[in-house]
């Protein structure tokens, strides 16, 4: 452990860089509250999306890194701002127009369009917790509805009333003139309609902890700021929540970054040191547009898990968090295979190499062994040429390639075989486009079939790759990748593919000869 801790103190891996910043907060004395608090926030205005998962996954990676370099206990809170008023009805819910009459009500006061929970907010909170539980995250969930109503926020809300002018000064600097006239950090919840009101304050009584305002009909109301009768606008709420809980670290997307001085200013004005921040880049859909909860564009967590393991998604989240990344179907196979490459590398690495390996951060140091003896990309190609419709068919080929493998001994491979069948049917098969070979390619393919027919060497990746390589070279392919591209397009119906020697070893020499003959006879195109 000491060797790992020493390596972690100089590691360039981003979770350790962030963890060291959190530790620096307490270089003079440990936290009075007895622990370091990591927080992630969630706005349950729509169904949880994969970016929400990424925030918790990445924060957990930093938390685990912190636990290696420090003995201070940690907590992770997932906070849902479910008192937020529903400003628009999401497109991706059943019978959306039935929710129109509930606009501006807190999300936990809006009926659940799915009919399964007490409210829309409760439904989305449950979805989030189910997703997070799938990945085994250790976290504590806090609902803003309960946080406000139970009185846990009362002390900070009363302090907001006391320091109202100072907090307003921070906010007004960021607003246009017309918005300044109606703005208040406090949003009362109308006692009759239950809607969140965006109205100016007529009076804030710090001594009594009360606010006075007029509603849209001109009626005057006075409400206590405590007990869930009032909520804070979302930017003040961010900073006030940090102050109320004593948050030490929170990350958020680049779209929040311009608000950081506001969040920090609110927190400081309430007498608490702001947490450390980490701003990550946003995920993009296939059109390069930001993924949105309300639009439902991009991949969902459930969609990723239909085609690949949870660990592959965690691996994708680890990579370059400060770089915008396309989050679309075609990233899944690459993430699966790269994750297993890193697993295989891990045992042979020294302490510094291991803690810089993404799998250390994905598994919190308890890294499993990869039993994936066939890459996911190869399984996809095998599904293609074999016409397999179930993973049992794929296992027939796998056992010839790796006789010692089995679904029991290689559960990750068994799971991947099932995923590969599903992914192939949904994404590869509809896009396959075969072509006939040109004259040069036809001659090379006939030569390859002949050499395979005469081959009596070991049925192994490297030996067969050398044979394929030699055929391309002898037929004058320059660069040689043109030869491999021809193999993929003529035989597999794709412009990219696996190491072809490995493919032959897996699919079989005789089967590959038969495939080449079909390609030459025009039976594939």
UniProtKB/TrEMBL annotation:
Motif 'HIGH' region mapped to chain: 44-52
InterPro entries attached to this UniProt entry: aa-tRNA-synth_I_codon-bd_sub2, aa-tRNA-synth_I_CS, aa_tRNA-synth_I_cd-bd_sf, Lys-tRNA-ligase, Rossmann-like_a/b/a_fold
GO molecular function, one term: lysine-tRNA ligase activity
EC number per UniProt: 6.1.1.6
A GO CC term attached to the entry: cytoplasm
Keyword Nucleotide-binding on entry: yes
UniProt cross-references to SUPFAM superfamilies, sorted A to Z: An anticodon-binding domain of class I aminoacyl-tRNA synthetases, Nucleotidylyl transferase
Record keywords, A-Z: Aminoacyl-tRNA synthetase, ATP-binding, Cytoplasm, Ligase, Nucleotide-binding, Protein biosynthesis
Catalytic activity annotation: tRNA(Lys) + L-lysine + ATP = L-lysyl-tRNA(Lys) + AMP + diphosphate
Main location: cytoplasm
Family matches, as Pfam families: tRNA-synt_1f
Binding site for ATP: 293
Gene3D superfamilies reported for this sequence: 1.10.10.350, HUPs
PROSITE patterns in alphabetical order: AA_TRNA_LIGASE_I (PS00178)
GO biological process terms on file: lysyl-tRNA aminoacylation
Short sequence motif named 'KMSKS' region, residue ranges: 290-294
Main enzyme class: ligase
Subcellular location(s) of the protein: Cytoplasm
Family designation: Belongs to the class-I aminoacyl-tRNA synthetase family.
PANTHER family reported for this sequence: LYSINE--TRNA LIGASE
Protein name: Lysine--tRNA ligase
Taxonomic lineage of the native organism: Bacteria, Pseudomonadati, Pseudomonadota, Alphaproteobacteria, Rhodobacterales
């Amino acid at each position: 452990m000491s060797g790992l801790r020493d390596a972690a103190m100089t590691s360039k891996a981003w979770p350790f860089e962030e963890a060291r910043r959190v530790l620096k907060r307490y270089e003079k004395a440990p936290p009075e509250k007895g622990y370091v608090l990591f927080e992630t926030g969630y706005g349950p205005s729509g169904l949880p999306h994969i970016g929400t998962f990424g925030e918790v996954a990445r924060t957990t990676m930093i938390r685990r890194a912190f636990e290696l370099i420090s003995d201070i206990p940690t907590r992770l809170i997932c906070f849902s701002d479910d008192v937020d008023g529903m400003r628009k009805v999401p497109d991706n819910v059943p019978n959306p127009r039935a929710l129109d009459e509930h606009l501006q009500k807190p999300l936990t006061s809006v009926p659940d369009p799915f009919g399964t929970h007490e409210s829309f907010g409760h439904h989305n909170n449950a979805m989030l917790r189910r997703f997070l539980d799938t990945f085994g995250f250790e976290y504590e969930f806090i609902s803003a509805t309960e946080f406000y109503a139970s009185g846990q926020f009362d002390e900070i809300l009363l302090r907001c009333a006391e320091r109202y002018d100072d907090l307003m000064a921070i906010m007004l600097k960021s607003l246009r003139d017309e918005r300044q006239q109606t703005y208040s950090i406090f949003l009362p919840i109308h006692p009759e309609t239950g809607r969140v009101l965006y109205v100016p304050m007529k009076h804030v009584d710090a001594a009594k902890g009360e606010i006075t305002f007029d509603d849209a009909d001109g009626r005057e109301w006075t409400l206590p700021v405590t007990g869930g009768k009032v909520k804070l606008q979302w930017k003040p709420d961010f900073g006030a929540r940090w102050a109320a809980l004593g948050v030490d670290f929170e990350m958020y997307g680049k779209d929040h970054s311009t608000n950081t001085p506001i969040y920090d200013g609110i927190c400081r004005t309430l007498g608490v040191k702001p947490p450390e921040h980490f701003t990550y880049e946003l995920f993009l859909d296939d059109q390069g547009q930001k993924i949105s909860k309300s639009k439902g564009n991009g991949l969902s967590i459930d969609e990723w898990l239909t085609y690949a393991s949870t660990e592959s998604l965690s691996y994708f989240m680890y990579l370059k968090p400060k770089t915008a990344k396309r989050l679309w179907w075609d990233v899944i196979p690459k993430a699966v295979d790269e994750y297993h490459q890193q697993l295989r590398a891990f045992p042979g690495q020294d302490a510094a190499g291991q803690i810089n390996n993404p799998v250390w951060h994905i598994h919190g140091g308890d890294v499993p062994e990869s039993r994936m003896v066939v890459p996911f990309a190869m399984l996809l190609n095998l599904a293609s040429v074999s016409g397999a419709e179930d993973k049992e068919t794929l296992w027939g080929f796998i056992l010839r390639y790796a006789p010692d493998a089995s679904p029991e001994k290689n559960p990750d491979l068994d799971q991947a075989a099932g995923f590969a069948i599903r992914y192939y049917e949904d994404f590869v098969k509809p896009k396959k486009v075969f072509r006939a070979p040109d004259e040069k390619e036809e001659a090379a393919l006939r030569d390859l079939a002949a050499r395979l027919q005469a081959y009596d060497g070991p049925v192994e990746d490297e030996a067969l790759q050398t044979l394929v390589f030699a055929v391309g070279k002898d037929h004058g392919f320059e660069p040689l990748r043109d030869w491999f591209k021809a193999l993929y397009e003529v035989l597999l119906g794709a412009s990219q593919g696996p190491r072809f020697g490995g493919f032959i070893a897996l699919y079989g020499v005789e089967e590959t000869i038969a495939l080449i003959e079909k390609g030459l006879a025009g039976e594939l195109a």
